[in-house]
């Protein structure tokens, strides 16, 4: 009896990662992320209300670390300027660099890490869309925040509008503050460096990088503390979804391989295959006209030649048609 597999239990095909397929995927997701941030602007009044609500919750819970950090970065350029450079650049440098390192040196961990990052990014995009939030730096001056990116803009390439290059601030959504993916992506980097870095230096950087990023996003008045908490929560949800998404992708790949016309034909001579000598050309007529014969069965009027008789295949028969051998003369 032929072996049959339960649907959905087929073994997943081996995944062969190629940079020319991975790079377009990551660029596509990042393009969707950037476009979503740009399009999901929301109402400014609603965004300000959301920001003030977060600030009130933080003050009620004594979690308002943004004010002292922002005053420190505003007063001390030797802290504020490096913090602005870190906010404007590392987010876009460390994360892709770590992806490339995983792809080249830790290939067995790359697929799960990439799926985790992309899933979390899409969850963050949902947050930007449904909960536009005004960052502290865009609140009115009476709330006590200073935009350090604007204050120190002469030191870098950014202008007074977020971390965008000077003159391009209008092309970014400045109300995409909740959750903070600066913190979320930094946490992703930190976890992977801690688990796969292999050296003490890598592990130290893995701990320090997300902590410093959290301090920087608050000190530069780009995010509230609760934005950072939400960024970490988004990464947690993405981590939980990673095995589910991986299994779903494997099932889709298996089913795609089993689609009609996709299955490879058995090799000639292999079990279940067709011998080249017995293969019939496509579209040839059925010689038995639909009749089936069992092993040893002869067609009507078929002559059975004794083994080793040397009779030629084309020899004619003068028998009456009962298939018996001709009598000797």
How would you summarize the topology of this molecule?
Layout: H1 19-39, H2 44-60, H3 66-75, H4 77-105, H5 107-130, H6 148-151, H7 181-196, H8 200-219, H9 225-257
Shape: globular
The counted number of beta strands is 0
Low-pLDDT parts are 1-14, 263-288, 305-329
- How much of the sequence is in beta strands? under 5%
Mean pLDDT: 75
Order of helices and strands: HHHHHHHHH
End-to-end distance: 52 Å
Helix content: 40-55%
Radius of gyration of CA atoms, rounded to a whole number? 35 Å
Q: Output the number of helix runs.
A: 9
**Helix/sheet category:** mainly alpha
Q: Largest sheet at a glance?
A: none
Oligomer: single chain
Structural key phrases:
single chain; 329 residues; mainly alpha; 9 helices; 53% helix; 0% strand; disordered N terminus; disordered C terminus
Overview of this structure, please?
With 329 residues, the chain is an all-alpha fold. It is built from 9 helices and no strands. It starts with 18 loop residues before the first helix and ends in a 72-residue tail after the last helix.
Could you provide a short overview of the structure?
The chain is mainly α. The chain has nine helices and no strands.
């Amino acid at each position: 009896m032929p072996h049959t597999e339960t649907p959905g239990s087929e073994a997943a095909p081996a995944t062969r990662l190629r940079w020319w397929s991975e790079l377009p995927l990551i660029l596509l997701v990042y393009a969707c992320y950037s476009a979503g941030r740009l399009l999901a602007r929301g109402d400014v009044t609603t965004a300000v209300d959301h920001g003030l609500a977060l600030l009130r919750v933080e003050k009620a819970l004594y979690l308002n670390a943004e004010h002292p950090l922002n005053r420190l970065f505003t007063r001390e350029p030797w802290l504020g300027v490096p913090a602005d450079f870190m906010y404007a650049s590392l987010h876009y440098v460390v994360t892709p660099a770590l992806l490339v390192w995983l792809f080249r040196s830790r290939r067995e961990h790359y697929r799960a890490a990439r799926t985790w990052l992309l899933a979390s990014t899409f969850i963050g995009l949902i947050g930007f869309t449904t909960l536009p939030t005004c960052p502290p730096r865009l609140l009115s001056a009476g709330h006590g925040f200073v935009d350090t990116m604007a204050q120190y803009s002469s030191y870098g390439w950014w202008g007074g509008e977020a971390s965008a290059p000077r003159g391009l601030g209008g092309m970014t959504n400045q109300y995409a503050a909740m959750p903070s993916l600066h913190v979320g992506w930094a946490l992703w980097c930190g976890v992977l460096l801690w688990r796969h870095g292999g050296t003490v230096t890598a592990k130290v950087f893995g701990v320090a990088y997300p902590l410093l990023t959290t301090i920087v996003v608050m000190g530069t008045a780009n995010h509230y503390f609760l934005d950072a908490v939400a960024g970490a929560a988004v990464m947690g949800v993405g981590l939980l979804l990673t095995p589910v998404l991986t299994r779903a992708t494997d099932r889709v790949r298996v089913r795609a391989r089993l689609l009609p016309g996709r299955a490879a034909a058995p090799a000639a001579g292999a079990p279940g295959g067709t011998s080249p000598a017995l293969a019939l050309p496509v579209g040839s007529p059925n010689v038995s006209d639909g009749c089936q014969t069992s092993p040893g069965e002869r067609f009507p009027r078929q002559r059975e030649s004794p083994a080793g008789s040397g009779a030629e295949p084309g020899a004619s028969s003068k028998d009456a048609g009962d298939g018996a051998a001709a009598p000797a003369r």
